[in-house]
Design goal:
With about 200 residues, the protein is α/β, with parallel strands linked by helices. Helices cover about 25% and strands about 20% of the residues. It has a single domain, classed as Vaccinia Virus protein VP39 (Rossmann fold, 3-Layer(aba) Sandwich), CATH 3.40.50.150. It is built from five helices and seven strands, in the order βαβααββαβαββ. Pfam families: BMT5-like (PF10354).
């Protein structure tokens, strides 16, 4: 039997999770660690909206809070560096899984790709201000076409970020995590990711 793959997160790191959907990723980490005192988990939507969008989210949030997680709603990646709770932090890891700007056009439409790239750059531009000197920014993203057209590494370079490594994302390393569409009438449905990686960046000095 092969050695079990380790995840790139530990209970000794201060971790910011951005763009959580039903908070199943945050809860997965909290259960692995045995507590969530080192985790700040955020969503773009309000708590009330999340309860309308995702089945079981209330129970997940309650468990996270009981484990010591700081849960924040209404956090916009384009302005999060100025959020009153986040602006004074220096996180070890800032994580955005499967960023998506919403369903407006087909995924291979240049306008849609441009929206996605704007979202990613806004995230990077804010994340660098609340990242510790030795911290890392992680984006998990599909690597096949047309998602490869987002050019994640090129956008990171524009914000003076350096790729540390790219690692295959394995769902079986995160029991209980279910990715969600997060937008539109099918927001509570999962989606097929195919080939995907976690891109890990550090600050360039």
């Amino acid at each position: 039997m092969g050695k079990k793959k380790k995840i790139p997160y530990t209970s000794s790191q201060t971790i910011l999770l951005v763009g959580e959907g039903d908070f199943s990723f945050a809860l997965c980490l909290a259960r692995k660690f045995g507590n969530a005192r080192n985790i700040v988990a955020t969503s773009r939507d309000s708590r009330g909206s999340l309860e309308d969008m995702y089945s079981g989210v209330s129970e997940k949030l309650s468990e996270l809070e009981s484990l010591g997680c700081t849960v924040l709603h209404g956090v916009d990646v384009h302005t999060m560096a100025h959020h009153p709770v986040l602006q004074s932090k220096d996180f070890d890891r800032i994580v955005f899984n499967f960023p998506h700007s919403g369903f407006f056009d087909s995924e291979n439409d240049r306008r849609q790709i441009k929206r996605h790239k704007k979202l990613v750059r806004g995230f990077f531009r804010n994340a660098i201000h609340i990242l510790g000197d030795k911290g890392q920014i992680h984006i998990t993203h599909k690597t096949s076409y047309p998602y490869s057209e987002w050019e994640i590494e090129d956008i990171a370079e524009l914000e003076n970020l350096i790729l540390v490594r790219e690692e295959d994302f394995k769902f079986n390393c995160y029991p209980g995590y279910i990715n969600k569409k997060g937008d539109g009438p099918n927001c509570n449905r999962t989606f097929t990711v195919g080939d995907c990686s976690t891109f890990m960046f550090k600050l360039g000095f």
